[in-house]
Amino acid sequence: MRYGMAALPLLYSLTASAHEPGTLVWTDDSYSRMKALAMLQSLNASLLSHPSATLTLESWCGAHHLADDARVVARRVKGADKPLPPGAREQLGIGEHDEVRYRQVQLVCGNLVLSEADNWYVPSRLSAAMNQELDSTDVPFGKVVQSLHFRRETLSAQLLWQPLPTGWEDQPLPSDVHRSATPLDIPAHVLQHRAVLLTPENHPISLVVESYTSNVLAIRDAEPAIAP
User: Fold this and answer.
1) How far does Cα 54 stand from its chain's mean position?
2) Each residue's pLDDT tens digit, 22-42
3) Domain for residue 46, yes or no?
């Protein structure tokens, strides 16, 4: 069963390891699609209800056995650059000529990149020591600026991939439940959050766009498809 979803293969990894899970091939049937949707909705709810994406992903990694060592680490992508999204200066409360810096960090569990965070921040609202640490280390932004006691305001949370078509819950149960041997194509990014970080005085310091990869679905154990 296919719903016309142009996509990329599941595993978005760093270097292969004999001690890490291999590529999980989800089968293209209603059972797999319902399971994938349930997992994405569960992860989305957890991310929205907890302040730390790193700790949420670490819990997710351990619960679903994504790696032997369920520990999530941040890896800054040096030299990365991206223009400000439309409307970002208004969201950050800055003028046309105010400086904005860009930082990209990947959150990695084992050999799997689970998310990529694009971060545009206002250096004039941070201390010199904070700016130096952001420029020279891999330390996550939130940890660097934690002394500001910032809060996070979520602007949007969007599923980038819909495993099931609109209105599927009102349709009869398909006859192909868990009977396909065809691999399910899943796009490279499946979920995206957009948020602003603000000081207690409501001064925006950062706009962050977090794109979660298909590796959040790279569960170690898959149930085999039943032959027709």
Assistant:
1) 10
2) 445 688 888 888 889 999 999
3) yes
